[in-house]
Phosphotransferase
Amino acid sequence: MAHPEVENAIKGFLLDQEKMAEVVDRMTKEMKMGLAKDTHPRAVIKCFVSYVQDLPTGKERGKCLALDLGGSNFRVLLVTLNGDGSADIQSKSYVFPSTLMTGTSDELFDFIAASLGNFCIENGLENEALPLGFTFSFPCQQKGINKGTLVAWTKGFNVPGVVGKNVVELLQQAIERRGEVRISIVAILNDTVGTLMSCAFHNRNCRIGLIVGTGTNACYVEKTVNAECFEHYQTSPKQSMIINCEWGAFGDNGVLDFVRTSYDRIVDKVTPNPGRQTFEKCISGMYMGEIVRLIVIEMMAKGVMFHGETSQQIQNRWSFQTAYLSDVESDPIGEYRHTNKVIREMGFLGNNEADKINLRRICEAVSSRSAKLCACGLVTLINKMNINEVVVGIDGSVYRYHPKYHDLLTMYMKQLLKPGVKFELTVSEDGSGKGAALVAATAAQSK
Ligand SMILES: Nc1ncnc2c1ncn2[C@@H]1O[C@H](COP(=O)(O)OP(=O)(O)OP(=O)(O)O)[C@@H](O)[C@H]1O
């Protein structure tokens, strides 16, 4: 049993069924506001039109480049779609200097263009006029498949002078300034869209793309007639439109305050975007470790945990990695191999079992709330589509590596879904490569 003070600290994270159902209700209303033309401007869940209307058939063919900028990693990829449902991918990850997250716009786009140039030269592609799909995982208002205006930076990025600009244009200009390659950006897409497309390439029932990584977001397949912000929503010959929900902003108008805790409010205040991305800050990898750290230091101040110890490390903001939650929760009950490693890395020397039990309880409370809220989001989308069978393609390190995330998500979704609705949650590989290429190939053809 965890200490009563620990139980008291985490009780705000233990959402019951009633609260979860309330989250679904509120989210459903916010989604409708995002989709409808008259309420879209003031909606917090924007439900952006992605301009991707065709799900893959598996027969796509062609060679495309892809770029992936979204959080902690930056990659350039060369994707060959073989026409038989398979794809070959070559990729290179570039170290993304964290100074670029808050540097100038020119520095950011020059870095991307230089990496692209380097990749093309290394692979002998400098003279090929290849189409490029740009996976850019920040909220963008699209006006077409290759026009995306940045609405706000998230996930710790804050580069002045980009919000309100078409990022495709900024990147294309940077590519041309360097003059190394003949690449044209034919599509910009959110990573959720790439994830959905890549999953749908193999699994025709895929209708949702979900990310639980540095941030969280989802997209789903809506009927075109409901995508009112699409100019041709009433006349388009295509029945479907992928909607990029940008659900991370859910709650920015206060409707999630009933599930937030004092710790969430502290985390929010120390981010570069206070008051924004409320739902994301309760769910995703960038924030979970920090929430745990705040509870631990409060318990230390109360003399409940790590009594008599001092650790500079635990006092440092963002020092408790979200990967530590996975470590701690991967130990079988009563065993502490990974927990011991985490405790040592956090600068503690003692070996008190009660501390380990308390730490585990805190980690479990934070990760299970994340999974509960994510389940609420997925159930909202499934109810909205009103379908009885669906596959969800998922990417992001939290989903991939947390030892219980998949099972928790499955359990909470079952609790919330109408009886008889079947779903499958599956890791979607290479969304920003294969997924981006699938979008780019279609966009290049229609060009
Ligand atoms: N083993 C792990 N368990 C849980 N979370 C982890 C683990 N390893 C890394 N993370 C968290 O996952 C996040 C990185 O996610 P990911 O690798 O999906 O990259 P990303 O592309 O930056 O994310 P996004 O797609 O949201 O932009 C980090 O915030 C990190 O804390």
